[in-house]
Amino acid sequence: MKFQSRKDIVFQIITFGFAMIFIGVAIVIFVESGLEDRSSFLSSLLILSVAGLLLWMYLDTTYELTPIELKYKCGPIRGAIPIEDILEIIKGKTLWSGFKPATARNGLIIKYRKYNEIYISPKTNDTFVRNILELNSSIKVTANSNS
Question: Tens digit of pLDDT for each residue in 13-23?
Fold first, then answer.
């Protein structure tokens, strides 16, 4: 079962704000130097690539539950976690540091193996948790006390 990532206003402002700043800087560099200065052209291309990467990650973040694993995709970043390795899910909390293929706050922190964790933000946390518990009922689910 596939899940789209929820998109909240904070991440929209950050993503599109930085993308527009990068695009603006690239345009200014390109207009001031034109095609004659190769290093300015390459700088503009690099800055536009970063803006493109930000937008790709924002627009293409999904999660998929299969009978054996949780697959995640965030732009070019892809991975999978075996369902049997998932120990705990914390609902309604935001992980501010660490690995976050997510585009919203108040998502799910998934703890797996011994010390690993990943933060995701499916459209609806409850539906995602219900579906993953159907695959592995031994996963501990903890609700954040602030939510």
Answer: 999 999 999 99
